[in-house]
Design a protein that fits this description.
The complex is a heterodimer of chains A (about 230) and B (about 400). In chain A, about 35% of the residues lie in helices and about 30% in strands. Chain A contains 7 helices and 10 strands. The radius of gyration of chain A is 17 Å and the shape is globular. A 6-stranded mixed barrel of chain B has the order 2-3-8-5-7-6. The longest helix of chain B is centred in the last third of the chain and has 44 residues. Chain B is elongated, with a radius of gyration of 34 Å. Classes of the chains: A alpha/beta (about 230), B alpha+beta (about 400). The structure holds adenosine-5'-triphosphate (ATP) and magnesium ion. Magnesium ion binds next to helix 1 of chain A.
Chain lengths: ~230, ~400
């Protein structure tokens, strides 16, 4: 198993006027291909901050972060965008589908930024939607889909670029228990097929679906070995 | 990528139809007024130029006021002028006033002018019917006359005057032709005129001099040189007296008239362009609102791999779209307004391709200039803040 993500002594501080507040303290984390990792912590513990750094939406204040061989600190805005497009598939708590686009068009979206031709995009989007069980909903707008279906479309959108990691922030947060469980089943299935997943949650029951659970509390990481 | 940006911009515009339309309004008004103003002024300029040109651009007119000793030009003077280069013909005018009579009906104080064959050759539309004065008439000093339409009506009623008698200054002439109603811009009216051979006029009207002379040019490009040469001849003819004559070059007048009108149309277009700038500010405002509304969307696109350039391109294209659509709409509205106006004023309607290019080019530039700042703002949005804002 190859290491695809490596964080060494990552710290993150925010400035509130003059005052510097450190919200991540010397975090170390390694993720290998095929991992299914849950980042578990209460509100305000620094989960979203971690997710932003992992997903290259933000850069750490200090420390070293390697993702798929890219030294993230070294990259400029343009290169960061390319890394996000290629290496990271985001799944958000509130789905974040564009309301005026069909399921199909939403799934195609990241491929536009990859620079693929329209026909190639359609082919890929279609096959991933079929794979995820939404073959008959491709022309639906987000408002014409249930919450669970919307999140599945969002997952399809995250997967369509074949990213190195699937990065999910509270993916079941906006869903009822039953549909939430279905989404978790889908994640487990994707992981069995070799997909690397990092999932952020405050819910222990959800975290239980992962193979590894990393606890985060007040900006410190601790990992207990499971199984 | 460009194609995708265009598609995305287009979709955003049509989902906000009313707002997009209102945003475009400033550009529509700006472009419409530019097109309308330029077209109307151009139409008027063309119509006036055409009518004036019809009076003759290849013509220099010499008006003689004379001196106490010499009241006008003699035939000899005219021959001297004819020696000047670049002259194709001379048409003198012998001014006279006389009562004219046909079968006891008298018309008093009619302008009876002596002219030659060149006068009729210079403008084939002068003659309405009959024949013009020809060289034979001049050589033989024939008693023939070409008369204006009003005179034909007043003296001959419904009859065809050609071949009938006309008594001028006590002698009998034969009517050989009638004149066409004169142009609006002509200095003299042909409707009330009687024209006879100038040789006949010199002999029998009691006027012994030529008061004005139309000089027809071979090549209008050398009009200025010809004017100078004629001046030299006239100068010595009138013994170097000031103000004895004046020379009027029709070509000069048309040129200065046209350049005056084009300055005027530029001035008007410049004023109209101010509304384009106002329209541009409208576009900028709408773009800023739209970016604020779509903060989350922009954040999401960035998370999915949109680079700042891509985002900027998308918003600039949107601004250009708005301004170009506004420009096209303005083009249609402006053309319609100009079309109706030119019909009402009674001048020709034609839109120059350069006018269209100017208006559309200008509106595209407005789009780029006023779209740039909002687009840049969008491209710099931090995706984290953007995604949090929901
Ligand atoms: N831009 C910021 N400026 C200042 N402080 C911030 C900023 N973003 C986050 N923080 C602080 O960092 C800490 C961690 O925030 P974070 O959003 O990572 O928590 P979280 O674990 O995601 O919480 P939740 O489960 O409620 O989403 C919090 O104390 C928060 O106040
Ligand atoms: Mg959070």
């Amino acid at each position: 198993m190859t290491k695809i993500l490596n964080m060494q002594n990552i710290s993150k501080s925010y400035y509130m006027g003059e005052e510097e507040i450190e919200v991540l303290h010397n975090v170390n984390l390694t993720v290998s291909t095929g991992d299914f990792l849950a980042l578990l912590g209460p509100s305000g513990s620094g989960k979203s901050t971690m997710m932003n750094i992992i997903g290259c939406l933000d850069v750490a204040s200090s420390g070293k972060y390697l993702l798929s061989g890219h030294d993230i600190d070294e990259l400029d805005e343009f290169e960061l965008a390319k890394v996000r497009n290629k290496e990271v598939g985001f799944v958000f708590q509130s789905f974040q589908l564009l309301p005026r686009m069909t399921a199909m068009q939403n799934v195609e979206l990241p491929l536009i930024y990859t620079g693929l031709s329209s026909s190639e995009r359609k082919k890929r989007a279609q096959s991933i939607l079929e794979r995820i069980g939404l073959a008959d909903k491709m022309k639906n707008l987000p408002t014409q889909l249930s919450g669970g279906q919307q999140q599945r479309v969002a997952i399809a959108r995250a997967l369509v670029t074949e990213p190195t990691i699937l990065l999910a922030d509270e993916p079941t947060g906006a869903l009822d228990q039953k549909t939430g469980a279905q989404v978790m089943e889908l994640f487990e299935e994707l992981n069995r097929d070799g997909r690397t997943i990092i999932m952020i949650t405050h819910d222990e029951n959800i975290a239980r679906h992962a193979r590894r659970v990393v606890n985060i509390l007040d900006g410190f990481l601790t990992e207990k070995e499971v199984i | 990528m460009l194609l995708e940006s265009i598609r995305m911009s287009w979709e955003n515009i049509i989902t906000n139809k009313l707002r997009s339309l209102l945003t475009m309004l400033g550009i529509v008004i700006g472009v419409a007024s530019i097109i309308a103003l330029i077209t109307i002024v151009q139409g008027a300029t063309n119509s006036i130029s055409e009518e004036v040109t019809a009076l003759g651009v290849n013509k220099i007119t010499v008006n003689v006021r004379g001196t106490p000793l010499k009241q006008g030009l003699s035939e000899q003077d005219m021959e001297n002028i004819a020696q000047v280069d670049n002259i194709s013909g001379l048409s003198p005018t012998i001014p006279g006033t006389s009562n004219i009579v046909y079968e006891g009906k008298v018309k008093e104080n009619v302008a009876v002018q002596g002219k030659n064959e060149v006068y009729f050759q210079s403008d084939s539309s002068l003659l309405q019917s009959g024949r013009p004065i020809n060289i034979l008439d001049l050589e033989s000093k024939n008693q023939v006359a070409v008369i204006g339409g009003d005179i034909a009506k007043e003296l001959y009623y419904g009859l065809d005057p050609i071949g009938r008698d006309l008594m001028i200054h006590g002698t009998t002439y034969t009517v050989i032709g009638t004149l066409t109603s004169s142009s609006r811009f002509s200095t003299t009216s042909n409707n009330e005129a009687v024209i006879i051979p100038y040789t006949t006029a010199l002999r029998s009207l009691g006027v012994k001099h030529i008061s004005s002379l139309d000089v027809f040019l071979l090549d209008t490009n050398f009009a200025d040189d010809t004017v100078t040469d004629i001046e030299r001849v006239l100068h010595s003819t009138f013994n170097y007296k000031e103000n004895a004559y004046s020379i009027f070059n029709m070509g000069d007048m048309i040129e200065s008239f046209q350049s005056m009108m084009s300055i005027m149309s530029l001035l008007l277009a410049g004023i109209a362009a101010i509304s384009l700038v106002v329209g541009g500010i409208g576009i900028m405002n709408m773009m800023l609102v739209s970016i604020t509304e779509r903060t989350t969307e922009i954040g999401l696109r960035k998370a999915l791999g949109a680079t700042p350039n891509t985002i900027q391109l998308q918003f600039i294209i949107e601004a250009i779209f708005l301004s170009i659509f506004g420009g096209l709409l303005g083009l249609i509205v402006g053309s319609l307004v100009a079309y109706i106006a030119t019909i009402l004023i009674g001048v020709g309607f034609s839109i120059q391709l350069s006018t269209i290019a100017l208006a559309l080019g200008f509106s595209a530039i407005v789009g780029i200039v006023f779209g740039y700042t909002p687009a840049r703002k969008a491209s710099r949005l931090n995706p984290i803040d953007a995604l949090r804002s929901l």
